[in-house]
């Protein structure tokens, strides 16, 4: 009895099953990478938005408290604590690479430095606050570029409005 056709059929079946398993594995890996990148994109966006919102809220709280002759420190402190920046940072720390988390921490420290100046009664027009805000914006631009690179996008020098 000739077993060549049987071996050929068996080999063809093994190749078919093996290639199907290989393709399924590649597809699953691609889907997992896509989901991971989407989680990162969402965490990145939330953190950037939260920092921006917190910065604006602190400046506005400082101005409003000074106009109303209220306790500027408590008002500014509450505006940062009440923002989404801390939860967004912790979410980012779970899904982002180490370098991005480190830069996000630098941004958070710069934001807290601006907060501390406002709490101390330094106005938003004062040179010390303007320097702290410039540092925050520069560190934020660096973080944005780290995030873009993490997502496989090109870094940008500045936003269309000239913000670093």
The CATH class assignment of the domain at 40-150 is Mainly Alpha
Q: Decide which structural class fits the backbone.
A: mainly alpha
Radius of gyration: 26 Å
How many H/I helices? 5
Q: Quick one: how many beta strands? A: 0
Q: What best-fitting shape do the alpha-carbon axes yield?
A: rod-shaped
Structural notes for this entry:
- The protein is built from five helices and no strands.
- The chain has helices at 4-67, 72-81, 85-95, 98-119, 127-150.
- The chain has a domain at 40-150: Up-down Bundle (Four Helix Bundle (Hemerythrin (Met), subunit A)).
- It has 164 residues and is mostly helical.
List key phrases describing it:
mainly alpha; Four Helix Bundle (Hemerythrin (Met), subunit A); 80% helix
Any chance you could write out the topology, listing elements then pairs?
Layout: H1 4-67, H2 72-81, H3 85-95, H4 98-119, H5 127-150
